[in-house]
Amino acid sequence: MTPRLGVIGGYLGSGKTTLVNRLLSGALPGRTAVVVNDFGSVNIDADLIVSAQGDTIELSNGCICCQLSDDVSRTMKALAERDDLDNVICEVSGVGDPGELAAWRSYPGFSPGPIVVCADSTAVVRLSRDEYVADTVRRQLGSAEFVLVTKTDLATPGDVAATRAACESAAPQADVVQQDTLNPQLTAARIFNSDVRPSTAPNSVTADAHTDVHSTCTIAVPGPVDVDSLHRALSAHSERLVRAKGIVQDADHRWHEVHLAAGRVEVSERAPGAPVPDCARLVLIAAGADRTAALEKARTELAGVAGVVPMTVPGR
Ligand SMILES: [Zn+2]
């Protein structure tokens, strides 16, 4: 059996893990391994992936596209040697370039799946013009074979049309696909199983210092936390942070996923039986010239929420 290797990318909070979960929960036949890389020292995405088979491999402490080449080659070679897999999905960090992993699709033992880049229809037009992150976003789109326009249920028809136009201009080589809002699983399966015509044209957007434009810090949430207070405290920073995510526990021992993306904060209860982390944490990410100050301010103010302990200093 030769597993199909697909690569999923897209900016922070664009819906990559949601797409991976859709593929894992029935959209892909057979057995699938997921390689996941978070920007940050803690791999929250690995806890957010619903892997029925436990085949989730975390690559931490660096960006998969430019900092972890030894880990990547060890992991990919081991996966290529396995004979029990139908699919391998590589989820690139929200600042990484999925195109850097494209060549692994022709490594002996793999057959090529697509490079899919998620584009949040409420954010990508703004991000692709942002002084600090536009290069990162445009380079990701420039590597795509498929662009999946996500979060269309939160966007106006005008936003969606503008998103499609921005993606078609930044990714002229790609098919821009809008998610079927009624059956997003179908869209996910259709893209992943499409015939791939690997692009021979090199990405025309130059490599940027994407890891230098973004900074991250981790906050421990060891105690039970009041999720409403946490929601409020995080909302106060929704414009200054580009992303926050984590899993926390409330006083009734219920687990909640916490997300901040594109200026919106969402806290939702974890499905019963979903994996929970050993240690509850929140990862914060900021971009731009004021990123260190933004992280520090958020860290300090979140420490005022009961159950939250500022743990690590901003990294990277
Ligand atoms: Zn990178």
Key words describing this protein structure:
316 residues; binds zinc ion; Hypothetical Protein Yjia, Chain: A,domain 2; Rossmann fold; alpha/beta; globular; six-stranded antiparallel β-sheet
Write the layout of secondary structure elements.
Elements lengths: L3 E7 L5 H12 L4 E6 L6 H5 L7 E4 L9 H13 L5 E5 L19 E10 L3 H4 L6 H9 L3 E5 L6 H14 L4 E4 L5 H9 L17 H4 E7 L6 H9 L7 E7 L5 E7 L2 E6 L11 E7 L3 H12 L6 E2 L6
Parallel strand pairs: 1-4, 1-5, 2-3, 2-4, 5-6, 6-7
Antiparallel strand pairs: 8-12, 8-13, 9-10, 9-12, 10-11
Helix pairs in contact: 1-7
The structure holds zinc ion (ZN).
Can you put this structure into words, describing what you see?
The protein has 316 residues and is α/β, with parallel strands linked by helices. It folds into 2 domains: 4-192, P-loop containing nucleotide triphosphate hydrolases (Rossmann fold), CATH 3.40.50; 211-310, Hypothetical Protein Yjia, Chain: A,domain 2. It is built from 10 helices and 13 strands. The protein has helices spanning 16-27, 44-48, 69-81, 124-127, 134-142, 157-170, 184-192, 210-213, 227-235, 291-302; strands spanning 4-10, 32-37, 56-59, 87-91, 111-120, 146-150, 175-178, 214-220, 243-249, 255-261, 264-269, 281-287, 309-310. The strands form 2 sheets. Strands 3-2-4-1-5-6-7 form a 7-stranded parallel sheet, sandwiched between helices. A 6-stranded antiparallel sheet has the order 11-10-9-12-8-13. Strand 2, helix 2 and strand 3 (56-59) form a beta-alpha-beta unit. Bound molecules: zinc ion.
